[in-house]
Design a protein that fits this description.
heterodimer; A: alpha+beta; Beta-lactamase; 2 domains; 36% helix; B: mainly alpha; 3-stranded antiparallel beta sheet
């Protein structure tokens, strides 16, 4: 049946089989060479792509440092914020889960669907449905955990300004880093999307508060799910910042000035520590977290009372009668007056063809320096100013720290204006008229000062002439409670000592005591039982008081009403606390500013 | 009782190498399913080990009768194979977009695997009766063409492009082995080219895409080209000595597709590197050469052609599978003999080896 092979036929087959063997060997050689190419020649390249595609770098965000007041009371900390998310892959059946979720949490079903629709590509990654859900919602989700597959809550650290708008101006707020900041070199480890301090302490001490970002190398699978941690570098929490601020005084200030537009600075006269720095109206830094809405931002910007401005360091006002402290010192030092010099005040001083009025139309009669300070006689200081001249007066003002920033490290601070002849020439191109010196002498000309400058000035007078740079930073502690040595640029320096005669300062001081305690003092309302209080009122005209114009008693519109100043200090048991208060359009220093200052001093000294 | 020469001529080497490959297969399969898992599902591994056991029994069964019986029953065997293929198209289970499986109680079989063998038997039977040194003419080749075409189109219908291609390659290999007349060869070449062109229009879109991305994997690196790129990364990253057993990250992190079936070689190459992979390829080559050695020593036409056919089948599966995971060939879904997971594939391979052993041990018995 079979066709058996003859020998020749067998040879024929054998030949053909041998050819097949050759082909097979060639084919395997191809496979071997390809293998050699992939694993040996190109192996390095493929090894690195295999490493690269499985390893991802995830960052670990550091905890930002806490900001405390001088007594260790936290003013700004971080609180956990809970984000509700859903992972579609795990949420099957998706529709069902979403339905339940919307029932339990009272969220609109369509809303959830919309959020999910716009994140459709994230099947394996969680989609955030709602940020910062409250404790109540958190509890509901936790209770129904097993009923809500794929629904998760992740915790994020969120900045928390515990007292809301209280102290907002010096505390500042956080915002997403912008391009300029990114390229400035001040934020070396920051990346787009990071939050950094935008103003105040948050900005000035950002490098301490920020901490160091940690990281984690994780191995992921093809779906991006983390399989294991390869290497973890823990984040370093930021340093805690302790301020010199006394929260109680600060809060009292906010309370006293609520509804008013103005500023108050309370400072320890013996070391320059800022105890309170109030600026009203204020804003709530919490609303900047996660981006402030356009409407809210516009409201803040368009508010005529400028809530975003820290009036304590950026508000510039004519110092008015508080400036008489400078004029008095200058007069005594220059020898144009002594403590017994008297001038007669008929209610005005005629100079050239103008009559410069005193605030008291009926006049103060014959007054010496003490009485002139106590009753705030303008005519007396016109005489002094006239005799000194504007440039000499400006020299004294500058020694007193006016016309330049005090150096508090809290962002941009205004310098104020101390006019001189040269200044006017440069500013307006016109020469100085002698008559212009008179209003300058009572702080009403071109002069502008900031509340913090005035606070530093009275503090210096109070402590007998040592002018401290005001500071708001008490200390910086690491997260493990070790004191961090301050870099040189953050160390406080005593600016200078007043080069004035001690007895001259004493004369001025007695005048300032008289303001509060004298029988005809302008600020008798600022007396505090059991404390020695010194002070000076000021009423800064917003519109010029014209000569001859009838001092009409008719009500001025609010925004033409004068600003009310009061600067003061109080002494008790070796403590000396100074303060300056300005109430915009507060009408009179004694009426609206002095009671606030009184309460602030009392609040700190009388515990 | 048993002829002493049967034992003497038993190819122990081939037997041992196949045994070795089965062990390598089970171990690599374990790695494919278990690496990186905390609670590995080793069910597949146990299943595969059982299939190995069954496979050896089938292999033994295949040497218990004289292979010449296959020649006698060739027509029936062929018809049975075609019948099973028709059954698949009618009753088959649909999985992954194609209909390849016949469910028989607890087990599923893939008749197309067995069909490859039935075609070999059929063609060997046909060619052995009329082999001549000058080769076959076109007219004589029409019959084998039909024998091949029927199962080929049935398999393409499933569709199972990989197996269909193997069927074609086996038939072509056998035909070329028995020699084609020079003139006929030219005619057939032209005809094949035309057929290939027509076939292109019958391909499903995903199959076309596979061929296109084979030509240029970067065309679609996240889609169809993704598998080839990931497989190449897996193999290449094994480098000279490999990442070690159960340490293949491409495999662990599921970057490899079909890691326990078609891409099992990538798992192996990533773990064992160039040295291990070259050894594995070497073992495969020795098996093929052993198979051809049996053909070389065989004294009857049917035996020679049968063993060449069977060896060709094993060879093409190896060559195409390894070639495809290394990016030399389109991804066509061909399993790696003895290593890939899958009962039908393993049993078919065992039957092949059984036939080879059978032919080898009976080469002196001429009735």
């Amino acid at each position: 049946m079979h066709k058996y092979l003859k020998n020749t036929d067998t040879e024929w087959y054998k030949q053909r089989v041998v050819s097949v063997v050759c082909i097979v060997i060639a084919a395997f050689a191809v496979l071997g060479l390809r293998l050699f190419y992939l694993q040996v020649l190109e192996g390095e390249k493929y090894r690195s792509s295999s490493d690269n595609q499985k390893i991802r770098k995830h960052s670990i965000e550091p905890q930002r440092g806490v900001i405390f007041d001088r007594n260790g009371l936290p003013l700004v900390n971080n609180r956990p914020s809970f984000n509700l998310s859903i992972t579609l892959k795990d949420a099957k059946p998706v529709k069902n889960t979403i339905k339940k979720l919307s029932d339990y949490l009272n969220l609109a079903y369509d809303n959830i669907i919309n959020i999910i629709e716009s994140n459709k590509d994230l099947a394996y990654n969680p989609i955030i449905l709602k940020k910062d859900i409250g404790r109540k919602m958190l509890a509901v989700v936790e209770t129904h955990k097993f009923d809500l597959p794929g629904v998760a809550i992740d915790v994020q650290s969120r900045r928390n300004y515990i007292f809301g708008d209280c102290g907002a101006h010096f505390l500042g707020y956080l915002g997403e880093i912008n391009n300029t900041e990114l390229h400035s070199g001040d934020y070396p480890d920051c990346r787009p999307g990071d939050h950094v301090g935008k103003i105040g302490i948050e900005k000035e001490y950002d490098r301490f508060l920020r901490g160091e970002r940690g990281g984690r190398l994780v191995e992921v699978n093809v779906k991006g799910q983390i399989m294991r941690n390869l290497q973890v570098v823990e984040a370093q929490p930021g340093d805690n910042v302790f301020l010199t601020i006394d929260h109680r005084t600060q809060a009292r200030g906010m309370e006293l000035m609520s509804g008013l537009s103005g500023a108050a600075v309370v400072i320890d006269a013996l070391n320059g520590h800022i105890l309170a720095m109030v600026s009203t109206p204020s804003f709530n830094p919490n609303s900047f977290i996660g981006g402030i809405s356009n409407r809210e931002w516009n409201e803040l910007l368009l508010n005529p009372n400028r809530p975003m401005e820290n009036k304590a360091i950026r508000g510039q006002y004519p110092p008015a009668s508080t400036y008489k402290i400078v004029t008095a010192i200058a007069g005594l030092e220059e020898g144009v007056i002594d403590k017994d010099t008297t001038f007669y005040c008929p209610g005005f001083l005629r100079y050239g063809d103008r009559a410069f009025r005193c605030w008291k139309r009926t006049g103060h009669g014959s007054v010496d320096l003490k009485a002139a300070l106590a009753e705030s006689c303008d005519v007396f200081f016109y005489h002094v100013g006239m005799r000194i001249g504007v440039d000499k007066l400006a020299d004294y003002a500058k020694i007193c720290g006016l016309g330049s920033p005090t150096g508090i490290r809290m962002g941009r601070e205004e310098s104020g204006v101390i006019p001189t002849e040269r200044w006017k020439r440069l500013r307006f191109g016109t020469p100085w008229h002698k008559g212009e010196t008179l209003p300058v002498a009572i702080g009403q000309g071109y002069n502008l000062t900031t509340p913090i400058q005035m606070a530093v000035l009275v503090a210096t007078v109070a402590n007998g002439g040592r002018m401290f740079e005001p500071v708001i930073l008490k200390k910086i502690e690491t997260a493990s409670h070790k004191i961090r040595p301050l870099p040189d640029d953050l160390k406080q320096k005593e600016i200078r000592k007043f080069p004035f005669k001690k007895e001259n300062l004493e004369i001025v001081k007695s005048g300032l005591w008289e303001v509060i305690n004298g029988p005809s003092g302008t600020a008798r309302r600022a007396r505090i039982e059991g404390l020695d209080v010194y002070g000076k009122t000021g009423t800064a005209q917003v519109v010029g008081r014209k000569t001859g114009e009838k001092d009409s008693d008719k009500e001025l519109p609010d925004h033409f009403k004068p600003h009310a100043w009061f600067v003061a200090w109080a002494e008790n048991e070796g403590k000396k606390i100074a303060c300056s208060v300005i109430v915009e359009h507060g009408e009179s220093g004694s009426g609206s500013a002095a009671p606030i200052a009184r309460e602030l001093l009392k609040c700190y000294l009388k515990r | 009782m048993i002829d002493r020469r049967l034992i003497e001529n038993f190819d122990w080497g081939l037997f041992a190498l196949v045994l070795l490959l089965c062990v390598v297969g089970v171990v690599t399969l374990y790695s494919a399913v278990a690496a990186g898992e905390k609670n590995p599902d080793t069910g597949l591994v146990v299943k595969q080990a059982i299939w190995c056991g069954i496979g050896f029994m089938v292999m033994m069964a295949m040497i218990c009768f004289d292979y010449k019986e296959l020649d006698r029953w060739a027509n029936l065997i062929y018809v049975a194979g075609v019948f099973l293929l028709i059954c698949v198209l009618v009753y088959g289970k649909v999985a992954g977009g194609s209909q390849r499986w016949l469910v028989l109680g607890p087990i599923s079989i893939q008749p197309s695997e067995l069909t490859k063998l039935t075609i070999i038997v059929m063609l060997s039977s046909y060619y052995s009766k009329m082999v001549k040194s000058e080769g076959f003419s076109v007219r004589e080749l029409i019959q084998p063409l039909i024998y091949t075409a029927i199962p080929f189109f049935l398999i393409v219908r499933q569709p199972d492009l990989g197996t269909a291609m193997i069927v074609l390659l086996i038939a072509a290999s056998i035909t070329v082995f028995v020699k084609i007349e020079k003139g006929s060869l030219i005619v057939i070449s032209g005809f094949s080219a035309l057929a290939g062109l027509i076939l292109w229009f019958f391909l499903k879109d995903y199959q076309k895409l596979r061929i296109k991305t084979f030509l240029n994997p970067d065309l679609d690196p996240l889609g169809a080209g993704y598998h080839i790129i990931q497989s190449k990364i897996a193999i290449g990253s094994g480098m000279l000595t490999g990442k070690g057993f159960l340490e293949g990250s491409q495999n662990i992190l599921s970057f490899l597709p079909e890691q326990h079936t078609d891409f099992i070689f990538s798992v192996f190459a990533e773990e064992w590197g160039f040295i291990g992979s070259l050894l594995l390829i070497g073992v495969f080559m020795v098996i093929i050469i052993r198979g051809l050695n049996i053909a070389y020593k065989c004294k009857d036409s049917f035996g020679v052609i049968l063993s060449v056919g069977v060896t060709a089948m094993i060879f093409w599966q190896i060559f195409i599978n390894i070639g495809m995971v290394m990016g030399l060939m389109p991804v066509v879904g061909v399993t790696l003999p003895f290593i890939s997971y899958g009962g039908s594939s393993l049993i078919t391979m065992m039957v092949c080896v059984g036939i080879l052993l059978n032919v080898g041990m009976r080469r002196f018995i001429i009735d």
